[in-house]
Amino acid sequence: MDPVSQAVVGATAAQVFLTDRLGKLAFACGAVGGLLPDLDVLIRSSSDPLLAVEMHRHFTHALAMVPVGGVIAALPFLAVRSNRQRWRAIVAACTLGYASHAPLDVLTSYGTMWLWPFSRARLELDWMSIVDPLFTIPLLVLTLLARARSSLRLAYLAAAFALAYVALGGVLHHRAATVQAGLAASRGHHLDHGRVMPTLGNVIAWRSVYVAGGEIHADAIRISPFGSPTVVEGGRIALLASAPSEAAASGPLGERFARDFARFAWFADGFVARDPSDPTALADMRYSLLTEGFEPLWGVRFHADGRRVPVEWVELMQHRERGFTELWQLITGRSPHLRAWLR
Questions:
Q1: For the chain, which terminal residue's Cβ has fewer other Cβ atoms within 10 angstroms, N or C?
Q2: What total number of domains does the chain contain?
Q3: What is the pTM of this model?
Q4: How many CB atoms lie within 10 A of CB 134?
Q5: Is residue 343 part of a domain?
Q6: What is the pLDDT of residues 38-74, one digit of tens each?
């Protein structure tokens, strides 16, 4: 999730267990530990544009790295002489913060290599949005109050709120996945691979994407905690399951194109297609500005014209003019395209 959420969740975890031993310092230790895994964003290469997306949420997020990460996060605090007599509690608080990071990321849709080096699987539950102020702001307020008052009770309340929100996301995700399966069945599709993911800042409007018959199908699903599901049926686009024709080349260049396409497809969980607005870009169709459509945020291009870096990472969102009006209408249930979903 976003850095603020990661810091607050790390601080909450540390406060729940170590407020009695560290007081206000538990907040800082947990926050630093919660932020540290995202330093992997500094791993990048000018000659390999895919390295950054490949390495983000990689080894620094692994369960195996938690003990090491906790110690590293504790070093700035242990540099203060007066803190050293409490070094065990400080290391424990930083480790709790560090350990909270990857599970929070797993709840989102981006994918996290929590089981590295034993598995390269990118784990994702799709229960929460990558940025969700409805989760972050109340949790931040409760956690800051717990710090200001060194209150264990408020720390417990913050943790209870976080767990309740996560549980709500899990329940609504299950309902959205049920609707997706019903939509696919109503079209006579065998659902080869499907995802339902919350849209930006909420757990009400969900993007459904699934692969069937060599195509990616997209729909918007609105799941109200207290009402019946509604849907906006979307479109479909041809799945790109192998490197495109413009990437066909012999020798080392062809090998690089094949390898980099496989890396991008792994990152995008297989949901790769040409951008309808720019067919030269191969896009990650998990995400779209239009929930039920195909207006992707990023992708890659392959160049066989002899340039030094033949693979280009492209940000597609900057070329989109669509605002968030449609998403807001979907969240509030005011979209004119919504229809009731009859099970």
A1: C
A2: 2
A3: 0.94
A4: 14
A5: no
A6: 999 999 999 999 999 999 999 999 999 999 999 999 9
Residue 154 and residue 217 in one domain: no
Q: How many other CB atoms sit within 10 Å of the CB of residue 228?
A: 12
Does residue 154 share a domain with residue 14?
yes
pLDDT tens for residues 61-112?
999 999 999 999 999 999 999 999 999 999 999 999 999 999 999 999 999 9
Q: Residue 22 domain-assigned?
A: yes
The answer on 136 and 218 residing in a single domain is no
Query: Of the residues 134, 169, 204, which one is the last residue of a structural domain?
Result: 169
Residue range of the domain that includes 319: 187-326
